[in-house]
Amino acid sequence: MISTATLLQALHRLAHRTWRDRAAELALSFSEFEYLAAVQAEAATQYSGEDVHGQHLHNVVDRLGVSKASASAMVSKLEARGLITRIACQMDARAQHIILTEAGADLLAQGEALYETIAEALPADMKAQAQATIP
């Protein structure tokens, strides 16, 4: 029986190689994908009265476990690429909401589809081990 650690290593290698091979085609690094996913993660729950919005920077920092400076730099990069937009928070003049643009949502969906490709590439016995090993 394959150990959990061995399974995770194999999954990591497969995911890493797939991202590496498709990165140029998607023009999306894994780090950028993670940020887009973090912005989207709680978008549906980020409503407060009349103030409809996405994530604040601190939500992204908390979700990804990165520094505020790192998150701020990536958010600026993604905004420059037209993948996210920032709007002023009506509840807190110091804060901004971070929202995926249509282009950002489309690119995120392509990244998510990449995981479907990875799942399809898993050998049947590895899928069975993953189902038995990972809760």
Distance from first to last alpha carbon: 17 Å
Biggest sheet overview: 2 strands, antiparallel
Regarding quaternary structure, what we see is single chain
Q: β content, as a range? A: 5-15%
- Identify the overall geometry: elongated
| Stretches with pLDDT under 50, minimum 5 residues | none
pLDDT average, as an integer? 83
Q: Any idea what the radius of gyration is?
A: 18 Å
* Fraction of residues in helix: 55-70%
What is the H/E order?
HHEEHHEEHH
Structural class: mainly alpha
Secondary structure tally, helices = 6
Using DSSP, what is the number of strands? 4
Q: Can you list the strand order of the major beta sheet?
A: 1-2
Please describe what this structure looks like.
The protein has 135 residues and is mostly helical. It is 64% helix and 10% strand. It has 6 helices and 4 strands, in the order ααββααββαα. The chain has helices spanning 4-26, 30-41, 57-64, 68-80, 102-121, 124-133; strands at 47-48, 51-52, 84-88, 96-100. The protein has a two-stranded antiparallel ribbon. Strands 3-4 form a two-stranded antiparallel ribbon. A hairpin with a 2-residue loop joins strand 1 and strand 2. Helix 1 packs across helix 5 (102-121). The radius of gyration is 18 Å and the shape is elongated.
